Amino acid sequence: MPEVTTVILNQAGINRALTRIAHEILEHNKGTEDLVLIGIRTGGDHIAGDLADRIAAIEGEKPPLGAIDITMYRDDLDSRGSLPLGRTEVPFDVDGRKIVLVDDVLYTGRTIRAAMDALIDLGRPRNIQLAVLIDRGHRELPIRPDYVGRNVPTSREEDVAVDFDAERHPCEVRLIKP
Amino acid sequence: MSFGHKHILGIEHLSREDIFQILDTAAGFKEINTRAIKKVPTLRGRTIINLFFEASTRTRTSFEIAGKRLSADTVNISASSSSVVKGETLEDTARNIEAMHPDIIVMRHGASGAPHYLAERLDCAIVNAGDGAHEHPSQALLDLFTIREKKGSLEGLKVAIVGDIAHSRVARSNLYALTRVGAEVRLAGPGTMVPPGIEKLGAEVHHDINDAIRDADVVMMLRIQLERQGKTLLPSLREFSRFYGLNQDNLKLARPDALVMHPGPMNRGVEIASSVADGPQNVILDQVENGVAVRMALLYLVAGGEATEES
């Protein structure tokens, strides 16, 4: 059976969703004071960079940007083995900060659990909020996003792919049916 | 992608890709060592036994810290305080330890091949922390990590390794590792301390330290093992120091940005002058710092075992 791919979000749709999320983040946090964006590698870090640029365009101030790799915090070393390690780069103190954790696709919630553990090992943030481009459901942990680009009902057999252009901006989201 | 080896017994059996996978993994772990909270839960619930039949402070502490920072439980056993002194064989010691279900045994032994012997007989993963005059893989890997960090790459670099080559597991592991990643290795030492035929492993052999050091990007000095064979192979330490010691004068022959390395513990004034050991080109403490990250990578990669599911 050939794969069937459907575009569920095009460039214009992604732009509208991310601009709205940028506004929502600013509204909820009443500006950029103590606000930082931290993306989860790989994918979430690119989206965090995009959101930081949009926030800067609206507010005139760019929030500090970080990236975390959650491989060391996974709960599946036994079943998936030693996956390649990425770099964690958080070049600022997280103590007392309002952290917006950014990922491209929210699925079981296990990645977010690992990311929150990783963040808390770096210090004591004032709060952690969650922004995702796509929420595809099927949560296995009590985790919900604060900012969502698009809710996409999926089955577990399907896959959601976010494509990035050469400048690492998200340009298309596709639903892949097996 | 999983690591293709159950054990780390030596560099000899690692490919260039394996070596770079280890170095890249270590680069990811290095950041943890500078955090306020130096711990990640990666190996929570795993037990690592450091089984040391030979004296070691640096390597054993480094492996112990590496395991602890990954949240593994680490237990140290040294030969002087174990049943080895009561006459137990290596295999019996190891079988008794294995009955307590460790996941990894990190092992140092005075006999070449001892870790290979246990790897064939036990189920847990074995990491060689030095076997006789054979290999010391984690030392070579932390040396490569340090060189790559300082020089940007490894390919084409000229690396001089000077001293007692014949009895040095550090030299052997570095020779395998450096040639595999495309560096040029020059060995130098007195005739009694350079094993015949070692050039077949891809190294240039010199008996004049100046020829080895000239234009080198890295000068790696080996420790004269005073407690072992110093007496029979050398007329005197003073003579060795004069002909094979690194000092400010002969270091000028190397490239001005050459790195000075030493696996420790140093015999100041014998193989390396204090002015060089403390000089601006030395990266000796960087080697020690990077050792923890490299050993974290080794423990993580062998702990992953063979993956049961493709990612």
From TrEMBL, chain A:
A motif (PRPP-binding) lies at residues 99-111. Residues 8-153 form the Phosphoribosyltransferase domain. The keyword Protein biosynthesis does not apply. GO terms for molecular function: uracil phosphoribosyltransferase activity. It comes from the Bacteria. Its EC number is 2.4.2.9. GO terms for biological process: regulation of DNA-templated transcription. Belongs to the purine/pyrimidine phosphoribosyltransferase family. PyrR subfamily. HAMAP family: PyrR. NCBIfam families: PRK05205.1-1, PRK05205.1-5. This is Bifunctional protein PyrR. It comes from Geothermobacter hydrogeniphilus.
Automatic annotation (TrEMBL), chain B:
Residues 6-149 form the Aspartate/ornithine carbamoyltransferase carbamoyl-P binding domain. GO terms for molecular function: amino acid binding; aspartate carbamoyltransferase activity. It catalyses: carbamoyl phosphate + L-aspartate = N-carbamoyl-L-aspartate + phosphate + H(+). GO terms for cellular component: cytosol. Its EC number is 2.1.3.2. PROSITE patterns: CARBAMOYLTRANSFERASE (PS00097). Transmembrane segments: none annotated. It is an enzyme of class 2 (transferase). Pathway: Pyrimidine metabolism; UMP biosynthesis via de novo pathway; (S)-dihydroorotate from bicarbonate: step 2/3. GO terms for biological process: 'de novo' pyrimidine nucleobase biosynthetic process; 'de novo' UMP biosynthetic process; amino acid metabolic process. SUPFAM superfamilies: Aspartate/ornithine carbamoyltransferase. InterPro entries: Asp/Orn_carbamoyltranf_P-bd, Asp/Orn_carbamoylTrfase, Asp/Orn_carbamoylTrfase_sf, Asp_carbamoyltransf, Asp_carbamoyltransf_Asp/Orn-bd. Keywords: Pyrimidine biosynthesis, Transferase. L-aspartate binds at K86, R169, R223. Residues 155-301 form the Aspartate/ornithine carbamoyltransferase Asp/Orn-binding domain. Carbamoyl phosphate binds at R58, T59, R108, H136, Q139, G264, P265. Pfam families: OTCace, OTCace_N. Catalyzes the condensation of carbamoyl phosphate and aspartate to form carbamoyl aspartate and inorganic phosphate, the committed step in the de novo pyrimidine nucleotide biosynthesis pathway. Heterododecamer (2C3:3R2) of six catalytic PyrB chains organized as two trimers (C3), and six regulatory PyrI chains organized as three dimers (R2). Belongs to the aspartate/ornithine carbamoyltransferase superfamily. ATCase family. HAMAP family: Asp_carb_tr. This is Aspartate carbamoyltransferase. The gene is pyrB.
